Here is the input.
Amino acid sequence: MPETATPGEPSSGTVTVPLHAVAHARTGDKGNRLNASVIAFRPELFAPLVEQVTEDRVRALFAHRCPGRISRHVLPNLGALNFVIDDVLDGGVNQSLNLDGHGKTLSFLLLTLTVEIPEGLLSGTG
Here is the structure.
């Protein structure tokens, strides 16, 4: 249960960690569309990410930005998940009056999502 576990405390052989502890992100933006990829640091960390980093969890994380359609693309050969999130960039770089609210900064928000990882897989991720 990723949403109910206390961050940092083990739960039946797993540890809840922020996504940035087991993966990195790459992003881009085009107009009002964010393209964010989450890439597992190691191949064995990919399965927990596929299970837990879902469209629903990403939608909840970005709820304050009122996202439109969210599509997740699973890229097993790359150990990556790619999310295409519409309508979260306040209209895009040229339309927005907000400072720095574009794709690259939102990757850091995505990496705050927590995931439960089996303890045995965490060695060597720090």
Q: What stands out?
A: Residues 1-5 have pLDDT under 50 and may be disordered. The beta strands are 10-11, 14-18, 23-30, 33-40, 70-75, 80-86, 114-118.
